């Protein structure tokens, strides 16, 4: 297990680590994990509601696996983001429509990614999960380039074409055999994106090839083979171009979301995998007050079925 270090390189940190050693001695895992979810600029129908939002399905996804959520605003200072990094146990980059290079979402993703690499290099396990836009953002950050190609994948449920690496991957190795079989033949993964990372561009890019291992691919209607699932070779960084959270938590009839028992199991196993990764991290807030004030429970979700394909969203930064 990673032995926590002093955070001498961090900017602002708290003094009290009261529960820390008690927790460490009584359990090898953090049983009160907290995941940060990046808010992103509100656009289209949401901009009247606020400046930034998080779709509630990502929150439910994390909560369903036994973790709590801290939303990450788009209007903090760099010092505040750094402090938050050392308070949370993992980061989720959700789907959506923020600009991959110029949005505050993209800047925050890059900052947390840098801090996560540093932490992991120093022996602190800090996981990052990217879904859809989050997947695409990770490819931009790792390669320093936008290597995406337009694909016919805006509302397409697909089975996964697993690579030979999937079976022994950290992500899938503990999945039940039956569920892996179902994932390989049933359309349990909703693709809801216009941009994809083709296997061609992945293979031709040194940074990407040296950083990630492809776990599954898919083909669009025009024959472009794109990466649907990958994990980093040497870091707890995971990315899915499809939407594991929607099967259980989104119900728009405009989207071909699977809700079968197997589809719901996919949501559960993916969420549990990531939350278990976060249980290996011991970052914590300075004290309970600070923790309570940061949690998503301070925000109330809004029912947005009539203006979007999300059932509910949280407004994180108001107008
Ligand atoms: C909690 O920690 C913050 C940051 O260190 C500090 O400003 C605050 O006074 C602390 N609150 C309590 C109740 O200890
Ligand atoms: C590769 O990436 C470039 C952008 O750098 C893009 O224009 C091109 O269409 C991509 N090609 C494939 C096959 O993905
Ligand atoms: C492969 O990447 C190089 C840059 O590293 C680029 O010049 C070349 O066009 C790419 N080839 C293809 C087929 O995308
Ligand atoms: C899986 O790969 C095969 C061969 O490349 C391709 O024909 C098929 O469309 C792919 N299936 C899916 C669901 O993407
Ligand atoms: C959507 O529903 C909410 C109430 O749930 C209502 O306040 C809002 O005006 C509706 N928006 C549109 C565009 O119909």
Question: How does this structure look, described?
Answer:
The protein has 319 residues and is α/β, with parallel strands linked by helices. The chain has a single domain, classed as Rossmann fold (3-Layer(aba) Sandwich). It contains 11 helices and 16 strands. It has helices at 20-26, 56-64, 78-85, 104-121, 133-143, 177-185, 199-203, 206-211, 246-249, 261-278, 288-294, and strands at residues 34-38, 40-41, 52-55, 68-72, 90-93, 128-131, 149-150, 156-158, 161-162, 189-191, 195-196, 212-219, 225-232, 237-240, 302-303, 312-317. An 8-stranded mixed β-sheet has the order 4-1-5-6-14-13-12-9, sandwiched between helices. A 4-stranded antiparallel β-sheet has the order 2-3-16-15. A two-stranded antiparallel ribbon has the order 7-11. The protein is globular, with a radius of gyration of 19 Å. Residues 1-11 have low confidence and may be disordered. One 2-acetamido-2-deoxy-beta-D-glucopyranose binds next to helix 7.
Brief synopsis:
This protein is α/β, with parallel strands linked by helices and 319 residues long. The protein has helices spanning 20-26, 56-64, 78-85, 104-121, 133-143, 177-185, 199-203, 206-211, 246-249, 261-278, 288-294, and strands spanning 34-38, 40-41, 52-55, 68-72, 90-93, 128-131, 149-150, 156-158, 161-162, 189-191, 195-196, 212-219, 225-232, 237-240, 302-303, 312-317.
Features of this protein?
16 strands, four-stranded antiparallel beta sheet, binds 2-acetamido-2-deoxy-beta-D-glucopyranose, 319 residues, disordered N terminus, alpha/beta, Rossmann fold, 11 helices, eight-stranded mixed beta sheet
């Amino acid at each position: 297990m990673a032995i926590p270090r002093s955070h001498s390189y961090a900017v602002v940190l708290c003094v009290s680590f009261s529960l820390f050693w008690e927790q460490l001695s009584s359990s090898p895992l953090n049983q009160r994990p907290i995941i940060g979810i990046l808010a992103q600029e509100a656009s289209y129908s949401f901009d009247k509601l606020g400046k930034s939002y998080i779709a509630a399905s990502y929150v439910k996804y994390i909560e369903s696996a036994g973790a709590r959520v801290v939303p990450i605003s788009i209007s903090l200072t760099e010092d505040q983001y750094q402090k938050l990094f050392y308070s949370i146990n993992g980061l989720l980059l959700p789907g959506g429509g923020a600009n991959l290079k110029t949005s505050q979402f993209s800047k925050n993703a890059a900052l947390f990614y840098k801090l996560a690499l540093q932490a992991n290099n120093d022996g602190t396990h800090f996981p990052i999960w990217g879904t859809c836009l989050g997947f695409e953002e990770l490819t931009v950050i790792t390669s320093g380039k936008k290597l995406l190609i337009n694909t016919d994948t805006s509302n397409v449920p697909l089975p996964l074409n697993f690579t030979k690496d999937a079976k022994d991957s950290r992500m899938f190795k503990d999945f039940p055999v039956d569920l892996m079989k179902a994932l390989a033949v049933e359309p349990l993964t909703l693709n809801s994106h216009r941009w994809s990372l083709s296997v061609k561009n992945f293979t031709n890019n040194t940074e990407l090839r040296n950083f990630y291992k492809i776990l599954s691919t898919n083909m669009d209607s025009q024959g472009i083979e794109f990466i649907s699932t990958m994990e980093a070779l040497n870091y707890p960084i995971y990315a899915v171009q499809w939407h594991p959270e929607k099967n259980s938590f989104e119900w728009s009839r405009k989207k071909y979301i699977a809700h079968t028992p197997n589809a719901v199991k996919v949501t559960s196993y993916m969420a549990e995998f990531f939350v278990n990764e976060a249980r290996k991290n011991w970052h914590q807030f300075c004290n309970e007050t600070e923790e309570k004030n940061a949690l998503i429970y301070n925000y109330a979700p809004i029912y947005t079925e009539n203006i979007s394909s999300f059932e509910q969203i949280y407004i994180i930064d108001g107008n």
